[in-house]
Amino acid sequence: MQIYAFVGKTGTGKSYNAQKVAKKYDIEYIIDDAILIKNNRVIAGKSAKTEANSIASVKAAIFLFDDRKNEMIKAIKKENPDKILILGTSDAMVEKIASNLKLPEIYQTIYITDIASPKQIEEARRSRIEEGKHIVPVPTFEIKKQFSGYFLDSLKVFNIFNNSQGKISTESTEKTIIRPTYSYLGNFYISDTVINRIISYTVCRIEGVTRVFKVTTQNYSNGMKLDIDIEVKFGIHLPELSNNIKNAVIFSVDYMTGLNLYSININIKSIKR
Predict the structure, then answer these.
(1) Among 3.20.20.60, 3.30.70.1350, 3.90.1150.10, 3.30.450.20, what is the CATH number of 192-272?
(2) Tell me: the pLDDT tens digits for 231-244?
């Protein structure tokens, strides 16, 4: 097994450029932010950015916690990759990660300055410092449950490569932009009252709904469960109405709050003639 390292200071664009480096060196597996990634899919781990503070996040990222370490070692053994790319802020950090995960010594190290221009690095640092944003090289749907309750966005990136025959090929990858639990801008809290009002307003605007009695929310580790009590018009097609409500609520809550919804129950309490 060959271990490659991709090194750069915090906020210089390592995660943004990770897939480019992996493609160049024909590496399928990436360890970034305490997550094992294969071809844009999370195989194991949970983002270190879900920790409550920066100290705990660093410990999680270098696998000092036994539960994280053991899970990752087990996953790597199961996958048995021939190459792994480890991301870190320094040579010492990537070496520590390899050591803690019982991996071979670093075979080759690539630095962010080899990949990105000074202008690109400065823009990445500005985004991290001023906006508190961090990019993880997987699509939004792959990592969203880990960040339920925090703002997310997706970023489509188009990469151009020269293949072995000298022909140019283009491929699109999606990355996830997250705001960590801790942030330069502080934590974000969204009250249940605000969420309930967003949902009530959204549902009231759907044709066939005459009244929203109550919205009940329950928070779980992997998202939020909703119970929506409504009154509907007589003669309305209920399965279609239910589907319209769910789609509208999912879109509104995701767009306005970034919260993950895993269950929506629609309860019809009365019918208006």
Answers:
(1) 3.30.70.1350
(2) 999 999 999 999 99
